[in-house]
Write a structure and sequence with these properties.
The chain has 2 domains: 9-104 and 112-249, Type I PLP-dependent aspartate aminotransferase-like (Major domain) (Aspartate Aminotransferase, domain 2), CATH 3.40.640.10; 252-373, Aspartate Aminotransferase, domain 1 (Alpha-Beta Complex), CATH 3.90.1150.10. Helices cover 40% and strands 14% of the residues. It has helices spanning 9-15, 17-30, 37-50, 61-70, 89-96, 115-121, 141-151, 208-218, 239-249, 252-270, 301-310, 329-332, 340-348, 361-373, and strands spanning 54-58, 79-83, 100-104, 126-129, 154-158, 166-168, 174-176, 183-187, 201-205, 276-277, 292-296, 334-335, 349-352. The protein has an 8-stranded mixed β-sheet, with helices on both faces. A 3-stranded antiparallel β-sheet has the order 10-11-13. β4, α7 and β5 form a beta-alpha-beta unit. α3 runs parallel beside α9 and α10 (252-270) packs parallel to α14. Bound molecules: pyridoxal-5'-phosphate. Pyridoxal-5'-phosphate binds at residues 60-62, 86-87, 89-90, 132, 158, 160-161, 187, 189, 199, 201.
Length: 374
């Protein structure tokens, strides 16, 4: 058996090595390393895949979030609601722009932002909500869009972990996550569900005006060369990364189902293990299992992690510290509600190896977990 890893990028690459290597070599031969034709082609293919009007590729997922917020003309001190239980980037960019992150609590079952906690966090200064589709499953977008409409707020989806997942509206309509709010953002970090061979990210929108502004901001605030209309940044996807992503995009649906099947295998095998809560599926979103995350209560989580580690099984804690307890936010953020669930999750979550190449390793992992609880 191969060494067990959280993510197995080597075996994934080996299956499409020829295609990827050819695509990379073509970029090298063209020497169009920045703004090559592959970047435009990938953006167009991604737009078709998501059924969204505009895809603007950028340097990474954090830049995507920052540029999205910059396009909204917010003022210093305006408030942006962010889930308390997420990766730092979702809130970091808010504070970096002189805006105030206001944290909302999350749902215990889905790990995602809780709409009723969003309502409690709203003040006259609130201008936007950043729902994060954590671990591969969508936040309650229908409800969130309703709140946003009522209070006149922008919605910027952080879809770094759920690219390819669908949202199912009550009327039966389906849309890809990342295309439901005003703007969607994603990351192509290597370990993400659609990962490149370095850093990359993208922004999605159906709004023509926002799209033009986002493109301008990502390019030094410049439309006509050397004429700068607004403050911008330099953030772009390398042609090499676009070439890799354009190949991998064709396999994204397969990658999503491999992850889903592996998750269902874990779920079934662990369903009756006392002390383990397996991830729940929701009615209004498909799940692409960026992470497969158990909840282990009764203070046993760290003990189980050590037990797994002693048996060469990695397991990770995403995330050990809720944002409202991060030192960096002790002055620059507010809490909109009690963070009861987020606090509990930080003590209970344990993510198991999850990737597109899981095979017999799962039986071994499951066996060790059962042994721990027996
Ligand atoms: C990975 C990630 C980001 C940041 O993406 P980078 O490409 O690493 O900058 C933002 N939000 C979430 C939820 C993420 O998982």
């Amino acid at each position: 058996m191969d060494n067990i890893q959280m993510v197995d990028l080597a075996n994934q690459y080996n299956k499409i090595k020829n295609e990827i290597d050819t695509a990379i070599q073509e970029v090298i031969d063209s020497t169009a390393f920045v703004k090559g034709t592959k970047v435009k082609e990938f953006e167009a293919n991604m737009a078709r895949f998501l059924d969204v009007k505009h895809v603007i590729s950028v340097g990474n997922g954090t830049d995507a979030l920052q540029i999205a917020l910059m396009s909204l003309d917010l003022k210093l001190g305006d408030e942006v609601i962010v889930p308390d239980f997420t990766f730092i980037a979702s809130a970091e960019v808010v504070a970096l722009l002189g805006l105030t992150p206001v944290f909302a609590d999350v749902n215990y079952e889905t790990f995602n932002i809780n709409p009723s906690s969003i309502k409690k966090a709203i003040s006259p200064k609130t201008k936007a909500i950043i729902p994060v589709h954590l671990f591969g499953q969508g936040a309650e977008m229908e409800e969130i869009n309703k709140i946003a409409k009522e209070y006149n707020l922008y919605v910027v989806e952080d879809n770094a972990q759920a690219i390819g997942a669908d949202y199912c509206f009550r009327d039966g309509q389906r849309k890809k996550l990342g295309t439901i709010g005003d703007i969607g953002c994603t990351s192509f970090f290597p370990s993400k569900n659609l990962g490149c061979f370095g850093d990359g990210g993208a922004i999605f929108t159906n709004d023509d005006k926002l799209a033009e502004k986002i493109r301008t901001i990502a390019n030094h605030g410049m439309k006509e060369r050397y004429y700068h209309d607004m403050l911008g940044v330099n953030s772009r996807l390398d042609t090499l990364q676009a070439a890799v992503l354009d190949v991998k995009l064709k396999y994204l649906d397969n990658y999503c189902s491999s992850r889903f099947n592996a998750a269902m295998y874990y779920n079934e095998a662990l369903a009756n293990v006392n002390g383990v809560v397996t991830p729940a599926l929701s009615e209004f979103t498909t799940h692409v299992f960026h992470q497969y995350t158990l909840k282990i209560s009764n203070g046993k989580r760290n003990e189980l992690r050590a037990f797994l580690s002693d048996r060469q099984i990695p397991a990770m804690i995403y995330y050990p510290v809720p944002l409202h307890k991060q030192k960096v936010f002790s002055f620059s953020a507010h809490v909109g509600d009690a963070m009861t669930v987020s606090d509990a999750l930080a003590d209970e979550v344990l993510s198991l190896p999850m990737h597109t190449e899981l095979t017999t390793q799962q039986d071994y992992i499951i066996g060790v977990i059962k042994e721990f609880f027996s």
